[in-house]
Amino acid sequence: MILTRFAIISIGVLLMSSRVQLKLDTPGEIRFDQYLRYQDIQDYLDRLNRIYKGFVVVENFGLSVENRNLTSIKISYGENPKKPLIFIDAGIHAREWIGPAQALYVIHRLVENPVESLLVRNVDWLIVPLVNPDGYEYSHTVDRLWRKNRTKGKICDGVDLNRNFDFQWLQIGASRSECSNNYAGTRPFSEPESSALSKLIAEKAERIKMYLSFHAAAQCILYPWGYTTDLPDNGEELHELGQNLTDAIYKVNSTQYKVGSSANILYTDSGTSRDWAYAVANIKLAYTIEIKGFADSLFNRRRGGRFDIPPEDILSVVSEMFEGIKMLHSYVEPKHITSENHYDVLMKKMRRIFFFTT
Ligand SMILES: [Zn+2]
């Protein structure tokens, strides 16, 4: 009897490990019942770039420490200097696998689901689904709980990219010790990943009206600041919009997210991409989205603890958050739209020119 139970457990473990090893059937395929690896993500973006020419532009904007591509995807019906842009990044922290899955889900819905085309009519999207590819791969192959990038250190490797941005660097909630999970690096933007991401944002900063950075797994919506409990100038707007976002998420499966400034409701931090985007790139709607985690307990321990949302639950987590993203879009669009960049007004003008209609 004991032997039989042992055999069943062994087969289960074997099946689980073969599932982890499972390769995607077709290169470029997207799915939300397993976590995609770096190459799978690149293949998917390449496929979209081939199929949706003119609608999406996939570009490499830098290289990681281990020479992997840092890749962005722009989704737009036509750029216009006055058109608002929503910027999203994910995977700054390696072990937070649900972040890249969430970014890929947003990309998938915006590009491949015609129902969502309204979300792209008057607003452009620029999305980086994997900021830290080296750390992400390392968390798949060696250490499931790896958080930093893979810069070689004297004693310990890796820099926390989300403590490496050039705003209030190393002030609080960050470490100068190489072996710390919050190691801020030798200087601001010492790391190729954070430096390249900041340049990409800075290039389009005037058009970026909202900055979202996907993390896990504190289940809360964080706005600036991290380095002080004081609130930014538009703290009220950030809080109210954050609450509307949590309401939209709650409506789907009754999942309750908290809202507040980082230092007030989670912890102090400095040198983060969110505070930098707000203060230096001047993006006044800047949020860290801490996606929900796995309810870890002594009875249901998983390898990655709270970061290990089971693959079969990915879709429900990312699709409820997508309802929140749609709500955020519905706030940005009317706030920043003018007759010069309004899709319907432009179409009317075109019709007038080509068909002499009024
Ligand atoms: Zn994180």
TrEMBL record:
Keywords in alphabetical order: Carboxypeptidase, Disulfide bond, Hydrolase, Metal-binding, Metalloprotease, Protease, Secreted, Signal, Zinc
Main location: secreted
InterPro entries, sorted: CARBOXYPEPT_ZN_1, Peptidase_M14
GO MF terms held by the record: metallocarboxypeptidase activity; zinc ion binding
GO cellular component: a single term: extracellular space
Active site (record annotation): 290
Entry's Gene Ontology BP terms: proteolysis
Domain Peptidase M14 residues, every copy: 34-332
Signal sequence region: 1-22
Annotated localization: Secreted
Cofactor(s) in the UniProt record: Zn(2+)
Protein's job: Involved in the digestion of the blood meal.
Family: Belongs to the peptidase M14 family.
Listed name of the protein: Peptidase M14 domain-containing protein
Organismal lineage: Eukaryota, Metazoa, Ecdysozoa, Arthropoda, Hexapoda
